[in-house]
Amino acid sequence: MTTALVTYLQFRSSTREAMEFYHSVFGGDLDIATFDDFGMPVGEGEGGLVMHARLRTARGFLLMASDTPSAMELAPAGGFSLALTGDEEAELRGWFEALGEGGRIEMPVGVPPWGGLYGTLVDRFGVAWMVAVGEAE
Fold this sequence. Notes:
It is built from 2 helices and 8 strands; from the N terminus they run E-H-E-E-E-E-H-E-E-E. With 137 residues, it is α/β, with parallel strands linked by helices. It comes from Microbacterium testaceum (Aureobacterium testaceum).
């Protein structure tokens, strides 16, 4: 039996757009199911919202997300970032640039005081990302 810690994002109504964007950045297999697909009762016009989305990439990433119907509270999460780390600089820089399109680069990828390369951004969906390349000296 295995156990995993998986990132599960929640949006008000932009999950499909967000997950299709992440799919364009990372590739892999994207599965999307709506509230209507499961016959779940939601507010008028909300049946097409995403009840569950799952992106599995060739690199082994697993990212899940769902929409939060209007009758449910969407508590904004704060104080966290998704971190992409490794030693393949070109790939990590490519993801950073792709995720930053339409978003806000907070710290361009550069050399931080602890060594290696590091950058931060908030993507167009409000998700914070960090990229760290190489080992700190």
